[in-house]
Amino acid sequence: MIDKLKIFQQAIAIRKKLGESDSSPIDTFNIVQNIPHFSLVLYPMGKNISGMCVRIGKEAIIAINSSMSIGRQNFSIAHELYHYYFDEEQKTTICKMDIGKGNDIEKSADQFASYFLMPLGNEVIYKIEEEISFNKIIELEQYYKVSHQAMLYRLLGEGLISSEQLENYKNRKVVYAAASLGFDTALYKPSLEEKAYKTFGYYIKQAQRLLENEKISDGKYEQLLLEAFRSDLVYGKEQEEEELND
Questions:
Q1: CA triple 136-179-242, angle to 5 deg
Q2: What is this structure's pTM?
Q3: Would you say residue 79 has pLDDT above 90?
Q4: What b-and-e string marks burial along 205-242, b requiring 16 or more CB atoms within 10 Å of the CB?
Q5: Residues sharing a CB contact under 8 Å with residue 203, sequence separation 6 or more, in sequence order
Q6: Among 65, 71, 120, 214, which is least packed by CB within 10 angstroms?
Q7: Nearest Cα to Cα of residue 12 among 158, 147, 137, 118
């Protein structure tokens, strides 16, 4: 049985370690790019795998299924952070799609992701009416940038909705509801085509450092970038786009 209090404390501790407050929304993509020795890979993995974490000494690679919605990718990144910081048993983990399933390590990682992304501080709880509405759930998942399913299970865990409400809300038309409330619906869609295959973080920095220190040739540098799906850096596609320095 997992220790939810301990996991909550771990989630808050990692928030603070990464320079975040106890209750603010988190940009997981930005955070992981600033963790030393940490690389993030976006790659389509089909319908059954949400992500994986590989640790080699101080270095780690997290791969996230870019065919999932952006909201679910955020949750999966947080899930893999648990493996990175607290999973002492396994150096390589491959995580399935279902939330709250699997062994205690996987359940703990899901619980950590839930607490890490959605701390639901008192100021948020205060705003939730006694009978939480579908629209309020949409607002909360947009605020915390998580998937509809992740938000529902978080509220269920806090006793703010029942299992019956979860099943009811899970089958509603979320994208239409979000759009009708004035929200951008990108949260419920997969990565854009140009970002479906991409590597960020330590790997890219290290390749640049090796080139600058003349440890590798220009050709080897370009090869490393192409293997990391960064043709944009090799061929200068992004650099050629108009920059708006507002």
A1: 125
A2: 0.88
A3: yes
A4: eebeeebeeeebeeeebbebbeebebeebeeeeeeeee
A5: 39, 61, 224, 228
A6: 214
A7: 118
